[in-house]
Design goal:
The complex is a heterodimer of chains A (305) and B (155). Chain A is an all-alpha fold and 305 residues long. Chain A has helices at 3-11, 16-37, 47-57, 65-88, 102-123, 126-157, 162-167, 172-188, 213-238, 245-269, 275-299. In chain B, β3, α3 (68-80) and β4 form a beta-alpha-beta unit. The chains are: A mainly alpha (305), B alpha/beta (155). Chains A and B meet through α3 of A and α1 of B.
């Protein structure tokens, strides 16, 4: 493990220096694409940045005692864990650096969702609690297939090391596993048709109902970083590696943004499902794809396509 | 005014988030406000978003003549909106109670209870008028000091 490279990935690429602007850009691409799909013009280029600065400059909700501390802690923990997850993404697998494994990455990617569930319950708002319950139910539903698909990727490559996973050859199991991961992405990012946890006009804003000002800004930030991390995870698993670092980086960025565009298209083209329908969807199609991937990965290890 | 403050005021002007309260309106104004979000008017171009929670909002859009039942909820929601905030009265009802004036269940006009910054008259106002009203409200938002705590705002 090389400390210099670890710092480089945390702070520059794909860490903070890349992820902050890329997160804002992805939020913009998502909103703009959704608007264009609906024949609208959509928000201006700097909109997510303006939203973020405005939220930071607003006054916060005065909340005394442990509740206030916890409410402030959840978005911070979510942002911190996502920065950690970003640093682990195997964009340049041959570079070495911080040799994290899949288990750590999955844990870090899961924390923001848990934070948001806890935030809803901490706020003691009825709508926050309903949103938290929905988030928890949905996360159990999609995580079953998401985790099974990641296990399939690991079984297929016979390793838990992220750098080995990223450079493994394509096989039937890996393709099926990537498909299952793709199915889980809209729910992980709470986009339509799986936007039940933050269903506006229905349960206000779900777990974030009682948040406002700078803390809400941190949640927006964590949402954008989540988008960078999850699309980045998919991109780093699906990309062929050329070995030239700037080509790899450019391809990584391009695939990430393409994925955001696709997700925005799905969000614009669908309406919100009921929570039971969403759970059923993942327990059927998500699980079928993930289970087939696991079986294929176990039976045909590393079999080239 | 330094660069940071100018950035704050600029982003405040460019990112107004609305929360809409119906205080006994006939739904006419509410439909016109929804029409602003449609592809024909598309207020997202101006960074305007309709938010689900008053905690997230900068601009409180209130329609209706203020009924006795809705008054307490209205005041609670106003208190929940974080500083800096602006109130837009949508339609003729909050301004004058309109055709509901004199009704025993109507306690308006809105001015008696909350400080109104912008009036958008009409029964109902056209979406163009609503958008102009919201843009004026953002100018009022941007004219407020860049850094202000909840306590200072109350004073």
């Amino acid at each position: 493990m090389n400390l210099g490279i670890a710092l480089l990935t945390t702070l520059i690429f794909p860490g903070l220096l890349y992820a902050l602007p890329a997160g804002w850009l992805m939020l913009w691409v998502e909103r703009k694409a959704e608007a264009r799909f609906q024949r609208r013009i959509g928000p201006p280029f700097f909109q997510p940045f303006f939203d973020f600065v405005k939220l930071l400059s607003k006054s916060g909700v005065p909340r005394p005692g442990l509740d206030g501390l916890m409410m402030a802690f959840w978005p911070l923990l979510a942002v911190a864990s996502l920065i950690g997850a970003l640093a682990l993404l195997p964009v340049f697998p041959r570079l070495g650096g911080f040799a994290g494994d899949l288990v750590l990455l999955v844990g870090l990617l899961e924390l923001p969702s848990i934070c948001s569930v806890l935030a809803g319950f901490t706020s003691r708002s009825l709508f926050g609690e309903i949103g938290s319950v929905r988030e928890a139910v949905l996360s159990i539903a999609y995580n079953l297939s998401f985790l099974m698909a990641l296990v399939a990727v690991a079984v297929d490559a016979r390793s838990l090391q992220l750098s080995t996973l990223a450079t493994a050859h394509f096989s039937v199991g890996r393709v099926l596993a990537l498909l299952a991961i793709l199915l889980c992405l809209p729910a992980k990012l709470r986009l339509n048709p799986f936007s039940q946890p933050n269903a506006e006009q229905e349960i206000y804003s779900g777990p974030l109902t009682e948040y406002g000002g700078p803390q809400l800004g941190l949640w927006e930030l964590s949402h954008s970083l989540e988008m960078v991390a999850l699309t980045g995870l998919f991109a780093s698993l699906v990309l062929p590696r050329t070995g030239v670092w700037w080509v790899d980086a450019l391809l990584f960025v391009a695939v990430s943004f393409l994925l955001v565009w696709v997700l925005a298209g799905v969000a614009a083209g669908t309406a919100r499902l009921k929570i039971a329908q969403a759970v059923r969807f993942y327990n059927q199609w998500g699980l079928i794809a993930a289970a087939l991937a696991l079986i294929a990965a176990g039976l045909l290890p590393g079999g080239g396509l | 005014m330094n660069l940071l403050e100018r950035l704050i005021l600029h982003s405040r002007r460019r990112s107004p988030w609305l929360y809409h309260v119906n205080s006994g309106a006939c739904n006419g104004c509410d439909i016109e406000l929804s029409a602003c979000l449609t592809p024909r008017y598309d207020v997202e171009q101006l960074g305007i978003r309709l938010q689900g929670s008053p905690r997230h909002a900068d601009i409180l859009v209130i329609s209706g003549p203020v009924t006795r039942n809705s008054l307490e909820a209205l005041q609670t929601v106003y208190a929940q909106v974080l500083e800096p905030k602006v109130v837009v009265a949508l339609g003729s009802c909050p301004a004058s109670c309109n055709v509901f004036a004199g009704s025993p269940v109507v306690v308006g006009p809105l001015e008696r209870y909350l400080p109104v910054d912008v009036y958008v008259p009409g029964c109902p106002p056209r979406p163009d008028a609503i958008i102009e009203g919201i843009v004026r409200a953002t100018a009022i938002l941007a004219a407020k000091p860049a850094r202000q705590t909840e306590k200072e705002a109350v004073q």
